[in-house]
Amino acid sequence: MLRKAFAVSCIAVVLGAQAWTIVPPGGRQRVRHWPFLDYPMYSAAHHAGDSIQLQELRAVACDRSDTIAVPASALRIELGRYWKLLYDLSRSAKPDALVDTLGRLTRAGTRADVCALQVWRKVLRVEPAGVRVEERPWVESGEWPLQPDTARRAAARRP
Amino acid sequence: MRSILRALDRHFFAPERLSDLALLRIACVGATLLFFFPPLSRQLYLAQADPSLFKPLPILKVLLLPLDAWGARPGPMLLHAIWLGASIAGLAALVGLCTRPALLLFAGGNTLLVAHRYSYGELHHPEALLIIALWLLAVSPAGETMSLDALIERARIARHTAKAAPAAPVESPFARWPLRTVQWLLVLAYLSAGLSKLVNGGLDWFNGYTLVYYFAQDGLRWGVPLGLELARHPTLASLLSVGAVLLELTFALAVLAPRLAPAYVLAGVVMHGLIFAAQRAPFFQYYVLYFAFVESFRNGWQAWSAPMARSKQAASAAPVGTRLAG
Asked: Which residue of B has its CA nearest to A52?
């Protein structure tokens, strides 16, 4: 009897938690506690004329001689997190904290003397005949100067 | 009310083969060890990430509480120890040695490592149901057959009674509920996916441009030629979107009408295979969870093969003359 009561409790807790996450009772705000998740991925509708944007972070060397592409792997962060950071950076009215974080990660990941960050964007459009992926150009969409890396400069000056 | 409770009791606690549950154990643990176990290199890599990125999931805080302070970030040494301990526990759970504690340790270690991975701002879905399934197996009689524990127990009884070892029990009323719970977890996950599309996208979700958009987006992000090719065909994309949502919304029929389960499972295999081939979204954990439908597959196979065997038998038993005339 005890064994069955335990099994019933397990069923109720597991299925109850999963159902609660998917359809919160009383229209409450959804709270997700991994591993109990809802599955809303790819649920937004799109139409002909919508655009697909790809973003890339680039670092500007202090002597302005070069820009370095900075992929998510160089920052040691997951791809989704990378895109979210770039998205937030492009739209933020006060991006200082984000620029600071990305600057720190970029300097650590590239080991380069970097003085500015840029976000570049490539845009594709959904046409009536689908999406034709011909070569579209990358376009710079913003630049943010970084605070000087005093530690690196001091190390460079040392004999 | 009583009849509903009786039906629920039958649904979750009707006797079921222990081997079906053991098979799910072997599939879940074996596949996790081989394909889905969090790589140690990734764990150590994350342990070096910038501290400002660490946002621990609640379950990570809970699981780490016996080992460290609330909300503490696990260091490389601790992660190494957990990874090693979980690997050993996983091997023991696979062969069924000290199955229950091994499964508990494996589920705990695996949960902790995956939760650690998702404590850096990014969270993915594929592992979630398999992790829950591992916990369910840990509290079920998943090691009562097809395990070293069962062999050792039989040998022990045979030695004490000086008789031939008794056969292990074939069925148990406690073998069905973990399988059913996994089946319903799949139903709820698919239902969530289907309902989200209807609520957020509405009928526009089936216009073809929606899937074309996602095929192109993921095709470009991951460099997948099939995704980019499919992005050129809105009509095909429209048909695929109708099929996907139909499968997601009606997957409950695989549980409620077991005869349909093989068709639903095969459709699920094709759908996840196509999603991976076109969009690199890896939901292969669901392939493992489909082992929860093994009874439906067996019954389906028996129903399909029995008439064929009978007709073969009848043909071979018929007199030669009749056979020639036939």
From this structure: B217
